[in-house]
Design brief:
mainly alpha
Length: about 110
Amino acid sequence: VTVIQAELTAIAAGRAPAERILDVQSHLRYARILGLETPDDIAELIASTLAVGGELARLDEYLAALAATTPADVARAAGRYLLENRRFVVTLQPGAALPPVAAAATGGAQ
């Protein structure tokens, strides 16, 4: 967790290489498009776009906003949202019993 937070802090300070940000933008854009191999894939993309944005034009707007994102935008967002004091760490343990409130909410299932 410490190593991850150090990297997020570096990004927030503007120390993320611009080339890396461009690589991530490209991946986000083209992985979505190249992942459309079947009619089900296309239907899922359309359905998720409509569910979130209400109309299909939102997909174009998302891709345009993604392309317009700058390293400074990434640093600003990281500095606002990816702070250590906003982090939650969850530890999962196999076979651990649920707390009484969680057990009641799940009908006692563990």
